[in-house]
Amino acid sequence: MSDYKDYLARQVMLGKMNRREFLGRAAALGIAASTANTLFASSAAAQEPKRGGHLKLGLEGAAATDSRDPAKALSQFMFVVGRNWGDMLVESHPTTGEPVPALAESWEPSADAATWTFTIRKGVKFHDGKELTIDDVIKTLQRHTDEKSESGALGVMKSIKEIKADGDKLVLTLTEGNADLPLLLTDYHLIIQPNGGTDNPDAMIGTGPYKVASFEPGVRATFERNADDWRTDRGYVDSVELIAMNDATARIAALSSGQVHFINRVDPKTVNLLKKAPTVEILNTSGRGHYVFIMHCNTAPFDNNDLRMALKYAMDRETLVQRILGGYGKVGNDFPINDTYALFPEGIEQRAYDPDKAAFHYKKSGHSGPVLLRTSDVAFPGAVDAAVLYQASAKKAGIEIEVKREPGDGYWSNVWNVQPFSTSYWGGRPTQDQMYSTAYLSTADWNDTRFKRPDFDKILLEARSELDEAKRKDMYHTMAMMVRDEGGLILPMFNDFVNAAGKTVKGYVHDIGNDMSNGYVATRVWLDA
Amino acid sequence: MAGRLMMESGPITGPVVTDATAGETALRSPDLSGVPAKPNPAADELGGTFWRRFAFRRPLAALILQRLGLSVGLLFAVSLMIFGGIEALPGDFATTYLGQSATPQAVENIREDLGLDRPWSERYLSWLGGAVQGDFGTSWASRNSVSEQIGNRLGNSLFLAFFAALISVPLAVGLGMLAVQFRNRLPDKIINVISLAAISLPEFFIGYLLIMFFAVKWGVATFPATVYDSMGFTERLSAIALPVATLVLVVLAHMMRMTRAAILNVMSSAYVETAELKGLGTFRIIARHAAPNAVAPVINVIALNLAYLVVGVVVVEVVFVYPGMGQYMVDAVTVRDMPVVQACGLIFAAFYIFLNMAADILAILANPRLRHPR
């Protein structure tokens, strides 16, 4: 019961629950009205952010090879570093996922969604005192769209044909209409830098709430508050320290001994132990990342849709969510979209474990003999265990799966996207269009299920430039059904982002966009000593 | 880690035999190399005789010179092996570095930029050219100077290793001598049991135990052990307390048991019996008569453990979040950052070679009979 009370108090703090609703729920718990009133008042008071303090975060994912250049940022660690010192043109709303203004105040698409006009915010200063100009924005975008660049955003940006200024407005012309362009600009590589970062991409000078005080790749990064920040609703603590902690046990020890305030990547295997520590709070957020089993639709024996269906029905999703994710996740439905996306197609029946149906399709496929599944623990945490559980559930349907454990080193270049049946992981994308374009369009670089369907491609491209939301939703429904019933993707689960923090950390925003409050954790929380 | 595995699983007398023979081979080799089976008068006149005379008059200097030459040759061989090893690994830098978020275009750009399309022999030679002049090139991943980064990391590693050695070496030798003096009595047994227990536990487990008790439960020690530039000396010392303690526990037993075994070995010889008959006390016999003659194998084990403290502590670095060389090299191997891996490999090899050489020379200094081979 006290768990639930904490939950209610938290909802109030986050501003998600009003007084009336809170009192109603509290009454249902048998809490006296006077106590509930006090509780509401204190929770609501806690909502008021406090300023000051030194925030320490122990994060997985740093390496000595990390680059200061945001274009080349790849690790979880550098993701948070970038969010601290830089801003993009557009941000995404933490709970709805819609684009919200950042350095771009507003935007306007043309009727075919192929030309977009952005108004750039005025009076914003870089950390070196220089004022942000439209020229900086243009240079930044040009740097990331250059064919020769090594930018991680190159794939996202290649649909931009022309970048120019129209007076003090930014005009982007695309090769084809794209209703999601503002969301593409939320990509974490696209930090606006002075002169586009062309002089010194490694300078780490931006417009973010924190200035970089020191940075040692793979070790530590420290930040001081930017007194000239153009926003007042962020950057509550005076200074931030990010410590690289790649060992899961080290992170847990550091958090439970109070040496850090926040850690990421809590192992599902230990999360229930950590939960018992009185000073610690588990912060899990539904996300778009998903763990997958990939079949190549064009390679025998997986070129047979009945075999693919048999393998889909042979997957016990509930068990995997419980055993592999420790319950911190949601079952998947064999298409790469969940309800955290805007325009999520509702009303699609949840596929469940069904040995009879699996056996039926298996028999119909005419396949016999074992099916070889390649896996490795680098594919996703617990991938080998998941493969073995899958082997057991498929056995009940009369399907023999042979699990081959591959070396983690070189898995991404030799097994994933090469071998016909393997385990893998996908991080989410800001939009459905981007998720499908990255992995399910016939010509996609990373079409790892070899799903090549001209009719699917056609709908995808039509939906991209469709500004009518209802029509778009319909199209996404059709696409989801195609991938679910004919594709090579078995998607048993969407994993939550599991982080943990000390109880003095307040105001954590559960952002569906990405892990660690979409990387903004240090800029959004405050310390309540 | 290979060295560490050998130490744990091999017989306790293993390293002594190996290293003693290595020392003797080195001593004998001037003769073998300088004098061909059939004397060549020309060679004798030019270099052979000179070298033989020099080797006879200054055996120590000749030995050191020879070992230095050998070391340089070894380092070249090591660099070639490291290069070949990484070439043989599956996956290359561009795809590994960009991982799942790579596009073929970005991969192509990186390959071209780094000259990965050139043949490996060409890349090896150009790298070697730089390394000979002390320039290890630029890290492919972070585009920073490798020499500069290594300077920092190596400093951290040496800092940790120095304090671990400072505590563990005297402690191990002292305990070993103590164990001999109380041979088969209670102190000897206690020392033995504790050291066996410490050597049987994997180092990450010792580390976790120390963290659990000293950092989490009692809150008396600093954790994590992250050190950085702006840190004061005392702060640094307090940060490394737990990793140093772990390392001491890990290497202590090996050196202690070797000291004990070597001294016991000498204790059965005739001159010790003479000393006993003269009526000298046990401790005096151990310290004055037995220990100096047992020093060669002990030095070899100490050298091995010192090398381990610098190059083999990856696990301890990871557990304690300590930014040393091991962590740096692992990060680089993961993304196939060749210049960094090669530089680390060479430096590690240099440490091993140098410490082994130092051990041989010290053993000879301690035992003059080894200076003039039969």
From TrEMBL, chain A:
Query: Subcellular location, in the record's words?
Result: Periplasm
Extract one GO cellular component term from the record: ATP-binding cassette (ABC) transporter complex
Q: Does the keyword Transport apply?
A: yes
Q: Which SUPFAM superfamilies does the record cross-reference, listed alphabetically? A: Periplasmic binding protein-like II (SSF53850)
GO BP: any one term: peptide transport
GO: which molecular function terms? Answer: peptide transmembrane transporter activity
Q: What broad class describes the main subcellular location of this protein?
A: periplasm
Query: InterPro entries given for it?
Result: Peptide/Ni-bd, SBP_5, SBP_5_CS, SBP_5_dom, TAT_signal
Keyword Membrane assigned to the entry: answer is no
Q: Domain named Solute-binding protein family: which ranges?
A: 98-447
Q: Superkingdom of this entry's organism?
A: Bacteria
UniProt KW keywords: Signal, Transport
The entry assigns this protein to a family as follows: Belongs to the bacterial solute-binding protein 5 family.
Q: What is this protein called?
A: ABC transporter, periplasmic solute-binding protein
